[in-house]
What does this fold into?
Amino acid sequence: MIQSPILSRLNQDEFFGRDAELHDIVRQCAADDDSRGLVVMATPDGGASELLRQAYDQLFARRGEPVPIHFAFKRGDTIATDTARRFFQTALQQFIAYRRVNASICNSTLTFHDLSELALPSDYELITSLIEAFDREKSSEREFVDFCFSLPNRLSAEGRAVYPLIDCTPIGPLREGMVIGHRLLTELSRGAFPFVLAGLRRQTNDLIHGLDDGDWEATGMIHIDNLSENAARALLESLASRYEIDLNEPTRDLIVQQLNGSPLFITEFMRAARAMRTRLNSFLTCQQLYVNELLGGSIQRRFDRMLDAISPGGQTNKTLLRVLYESAMSETRKSSLWAWKKRLGLAPPEFDQLIDGLHVYELINSSGSFIEVNAESYIWMDYLRAHYRAEVAAEPRARVVATTLLESLKRAPETMTRKYRRDSAVGLREVLAKFNCQDVPASLFHYDRFAAAYKGEDASTINDGLDSEKDLIQLPQVIQTAACASYSATFDCDRERCVVAHAFEAAEYTSENEIVWLAAEIDSKLEATRELTQEWCDRLATFARESGFERFRTWLIAPEGFSKRAAKVLDERKAFGSSRRQVQMLAGRISQDKQVEKPKADEYEMTIPMGADSELIAAHAVEKIARRVNFRPEAVNQIKTALVEACINAAEHSLSPDRKIYQRFVLEGDKLVVTVASRGVVPAPLSRENGENAEPASGKSRRGWGLKLIKTLMDEVEFEHVDDGTQLRMTKYIR
Amino acid sequence: MRDSTQEITIHTRAVGDTAIIYASDYLNKLSGEKIERECQRQFDSGRRTLIINFRDTELINSIGVSILVGLIDAAEQATARLIFSDLNSNTANLFEMLGLTRHVSLAANEDEALARIAPPGDPAVSTA
It folds into this structure.
């Protein structure tokens, strides 16, 4: 059954893409004392306010304890006593509404006398005493505010459990509002009840860490970004159906792209379509409505409000528009803080507040001494362009409308093309993010070898061939991926198709092992030609140089692979080249690696201290395990010896702080897998290339036999990186 | 196999001019060094034929092996003869694997080791 909205503005069945977050908030009400404060960090247009309202409605319908209390700050909340009074009245009203199971009380205009009358007999005494105290505390501003904000604590102290849901997103970057927000949170943090705080993601840290007590830490975080494409599409379709608006798939997708999946803008846009009775069945009607919204509708109001809230007003507004516009249109979209300060002509406190405000609203990215206009949002960029023309360049409004409409229409097919290209991309960032020192067949990175061996073969034959390949490449451990465009505004490429991946080879965190993989998906209907390949190698080399990447690896992906001459170029450049199919097979193989962690059939774990011959205890244990699965006596001894060696290695080389060796013995079908791990640093030569280089020649060398011995005694040996250490994984097959 | 807290004692016996040193069940750094010290003591006392008997040895680690390598060097420098005897198959395989057998003689048992050392017909070396 779908419940009627109480505070929420969307029906429950129209609230898309936030199921998990909603569930977390509802579940938090039953949190124990140790996990009380849940923080919702939201993008400015991500719909965090509606999320809290929806949570309130769900909790109201759910009944039982605790009593939900929803309070949303307002943009104009700058006078503490006014906010405190509103909080007190809202909380009391919602408390009584909940206790009386009468949702209409939440939204009614009621006096304190009304509230006393509406209180349940069992609550009457408490409510009237709180109202009397409210009147008494009015003499002192500080005491009055503290008293009002402590209402949840007072209710809780009287055995009425409450669950405050506080929406700080409307405060934005306003200092006065932030101070009031701090005061409310300070009071809440003193209570022994769970609560939720929602704020803009660039604001919440200040709200939390600005607390007077300073000892409250969020015990849970929920990140709210714009909606996924699927959720945004579902929201649009639902609203179109509810408002009886014509919508087709292309226009639906265009709106989603253009409004960046923002639930707030999508809802406003569809409401505008309903109000204007606009049929959204062509790009033209969509863009006409969009331009209307941009130059007089909800989009304009939203950005106007933001800029008004943070700008001192007057001429500064115009100057700000000019500076924002000119920065956005510059090649790098980046300017120095100093230049902004000079151009805006504001004194430090005002200037700092302005920059903070723009940053919190995510209109700019401010980092230290540079400011970059956020050009990723179509809506913000369109607003900026249109309003610069109208208000700064003083172009006639008709012309601004026409130009904006023309530009947005011309852009529509490009927007969709970009989306389709994004959808069809192989997902380089996702693939690279999975790189974690896996050994993979080298042919997956050499199209010429792959084509020679497998062209025309079916997937299972190719996989069998890949499984038996001896020439393996150890992937680096990728620690971060980003679009090349995020590094350089001048590097022209699709964000999804050109990726930077920072990595460490052999998962050794040393400068020597640091490497950057530059991967690009290039367009070519047939095998990529020599010229195209060369051009991309050059482009990425230049990009690497300009970005200051000392060691880098180029990896090009062409849908159909590379011609022989192109493969030669790749070889000369020591670059990798793969077809789309190779990348898909690689992705499949490195994803499978994660599945290795499947439930173990028979698994034993053991921790021993280093030294005092404790490796003998481990050797005894592994002997018992190996005998249970009928390893031959000779093999049992080999396993024991290898384990002893691994323990000695761990003790000798790891500089382990806890002086412990962690071991796991896993029986998997026809093999025993022994893992020996310890914390601490392992000398690079030991873990690199699985210790090959660490070994002395056999014969009369005095030390360093260990790894050679292990490799000889066991069937498979590999080093695996773990945080703060290395582990050795040894496998012996039952024969 | 002994408990790790147990004291390691290296037994030695003399047969004629030959010293037979008995390695413990676990040949590691500690027990290896004890053998090394005993060998050195024998060299210092002028003995030039040594047999290390591995009949009790179940497990050897690489540190123990490295000490044995050191012993082989020391024996060479002292122009002494060194024989390893009574190796179980695991230990023998391990020595083979690490190339030790290229530098030291192996004997199946003490008698065989003593027979190799003694001149033909010398009754002094017989343990029977």
In short: The two ends of chain A are 62 Å apart (CA to CA). Chain A has a mean pLDDT of 86. The first strand of chain A starts at residue 37 and ends at 42.
